[in-house]
Write a structure and sequence with these properties.
about 100 residues, alpha+beta, Double Stranded RNA Binding Domain, 2 helices, DUF3630, DUF3630 family protein
């Protein structure tokens, strides 16, 4: 079963997430579930699928965030929707690392 290996904040106000095994686009629904199970107060507002990229727009503690997946590079990150500094990223980082 896929699990979160690391979650860490970078200097660009992104929460970078890596998993214990490699993945492809077919795994994104399971990966998103793996992340969202740690965020009991989230609410998914939108799920957009593209050729190599998918994202989930969601709320967490009344703030809009975006969970991004880019399958070619196996990249996954969460960013605030409005690109302003988000204190919720700190909280999510803590929840994903427990």
């Amino acid at each position: 079963m896929q699990q979160i290996q690391t979650a860490k904040l970078d200097n660009n106000n992104l929460l970078l997430i890596s998993f214990t095994r490699g993945w492809d686009q077919d795994d994104i629904n399971l990966l998103s579930q793996c992340i969202f199970k740690h965020l009991p107060e989230h609410q998914i507002k939108e799920h957009i699928q593209g050729a190599d990229r998918e994202y989930f727009r969601f709320t967490f503690n009344d703030e809009y965030l975006v969970l991004q997946f880019e399958s070619y590079s196996e990249s996954c990150w969460i960013e605030p929707e409005d690109q302003l500094n988000s204190q919720q990223l700190q909280k999510i980082n803590s929840l994903l690392n427990n």
